[in-house]
Design a protein that fits this description.
- It is a single chain.
- The chain is α/β, with parallel strands linked by helices.
- It has a single domain, classed as Thymidylate synthase/dCMP hydroxymethylase domain (Thymidylate Synthase, Chain A, 2-Layer Sandwich), CATH 3.30.572.10.
- Helix content is about 35%, strand content about 25%.
- The protein has 7 helices and 8 strands; from the N terminus they run βαββαααββββαβαα.
- Strands 1, 2, 3, 4, 5, 6, 7 and 8 form an 8-stranded mixed β-sheet that branches.
- The protein is globular, with a radius of gyration of 21 Å.
- It starts with a strand and ends with a helix.
Length: about 240
């Protein structure tokens, strides 16, 4: 099992570097149970993003745009409502039965040097493969933990994903968590005179992966074919120098 650590400047940089490392170094892994039974390439991955606040939050090459990221951050991370047809969202787990976000804000209003402010999304019953009540197939959350810490007047987040779709999921996830952190800091600042800013985003995932159906997309993205016109031009220039 390969563990790789990536340091990135901003969110798009983190996405691009993650795709490159998994494509070049990823271990083959056949998923035998889960949302998609297929072949993958995967890494045990750690990502440190030093300036996640930098705009744009998502690359123009990603499968999502800022409109989607804003909707995702509000519906799936910050708010407890909006579950729609889903059994749960990350936000519903964070807000019910204990409003962990509100309690985290209160904790930091009282004490900024608190190292115990951890918000948990995964529940003990998520170990079951079927919902104990409905007996239907149960999918545990990919995002399990959002840990927080204030250092140098900046709010840093450390998050754990048990499983992470690097191509389609990661861009919206990291951008959405940056927006989550910005809202989190804003709420604290409105109740104090701290003037906090957002800090680093750090992620860990034991299985950050690419699905087989994405291989050609990733290859084309990372290894774009030379434009025929440019190729002919390069050959002409080379020939003129001989």
């Amino acid at each position: 099992m390969k563990h790789v650590k990536i340091t990135a400047f901003d969110c798009p940089d983190a996405w691009f570097k993650t795709l490159g490392h998994i494509w070049r170094e990823g271990d083959p892994f056949t998923v035998g149970y889960g949302s998609e039974v297929t072949e993958t390439k995967k890494l045990n991955l750690s990502i440190e993003i030093t300036h996640p606040e930098n705009r744009p939050l998502v690359s123009d090459k990603a499968s999502c745009d800022m409109k989607y990221v804003q909707w995702y951050a509000l519906t799936y991370l910050w708010c407890g409502e909006g579950k729609q047809e889903e059994i749960y969202t990350y936000g519903s787990r964070l807000r019910e039965p204990v409003d962990q976000v509100e309690e985290a804000i209160k904790n930091y209003v009282k004490e900024q040097n608190d190292r115990q402010v951890t918000m948990v999304i995964r529940l003990p019953e998520d170990i079951y493969k079927k919902d104990p009540k409905t007996k239907e197939k149960h999918e545990p959350p990919c995002l399990s933990i959002i840990d927080t810490e204030i250092v140098d007047n900046k709010m840093h987040l450390t998050c754990y994903f048990r499983s992470w779709d690097a191509f389609a999921g990661l861009p919206a996830n990291i951008a959405g968590l940056q927006l989550f952190n910005e809202a989190f800091v804003t709420e604290i600042n409105e109740r104090t005179n701290l003037g906090l800013t957002t800090g680093k985003l750090v992620f860990h995932s034991k299985n950050c992966h690419l699905y087989k159906r994405q291989f050609n997309l990733v290859k084309d993205f990372l290894e774009p074919k030379s434009n025929d016109k440019n190729t002919r031009l390069a050959k002409t220039i080379k020939a003129s120098k001989i």
